[in-house]
Amino acid sequence: MTGPHQPPTRVGILAKSQLRAAASHLVDIAVWLERRGAQAIFETETAALMPDSVSRTVATKQQLASDVEMVLVLGGDGTLLGMADCIGEAGSGIPILGVNFGSLGFLTEVTLTELYPALEAALSGKVRFEERVMLQCTTRRAGGTLARHIALNDAVVTKSARSRMIDLSVWVGDDFVTRVKADGLIVATPTGSTAYNLAAGGPIVQPNVDALIVTPIAPHTLTNRPLVIPATSSVRIQPIVDGRDEVYVTFDGQTAYQLQAGDEILVRRADVCLRLIRPTSRSYYQVLRAKLKWGER
Fold first, then answer.
1. CATH for 134-271?
2. Which of 81, 122, 190, 230 has the smallest count of CB within 10 Å of its CB?
């Protein structure tokens, strides 16, 4: 989606935890923003990377998710995921610009040398947004709701390293699909298709496709294959847990907890989307080629 928007005047800045390489850039970014009429607001741990002598405005990640007009993420895809999930939980729709301090990322695709041109584009009032599907994940226990989470990439039900294979019953909508014996199950968005889903043998799905992906992890039966379903569908997963099993559910690799017998996970498309700022002309396929090293010998 491309078009004019109100230039942000309050820009949240979040760096990867303990990312010393970002420290030297933080003050420069704040000065650069101030000269253009925008205020930099630093996430708590990010602010701690800055020299003590420098004054700064500080906020928690949760406060950034509600109180700024744009977030600049310095780090990698994992750092962006954590911020995206906070914004999703807040329902604020704040756009994110991701700058990668390592190799090119699927989400943090802007390189360090592109930082200021990307910021210039974001502050100009004309920039390209991509709206990415997010997941609303509900864990039910004993007839009630135990927890709710928003995830950009995936919800994963998996066993512990010392557990045997687990049994999982899976429904799509009201239709029973199958009972899977596997190391686990992934429900991913198209954005998450290039994350754990890809490592588990799932398909790559272009981010603008309105779909969800259900992928078993190391299934006992080789005919249990990944399934691509409409994003309007919901997925219900019920692990068959006994006293010997340790089964966990994880959301975007950020939050995890152990499941009990009778628990079930309901995953559907969230009512909110992530607004990802895309200031470069680099295409999705260029990113795929670079990340997956397609065409190299």
1. 2.60.200.30
2. 230
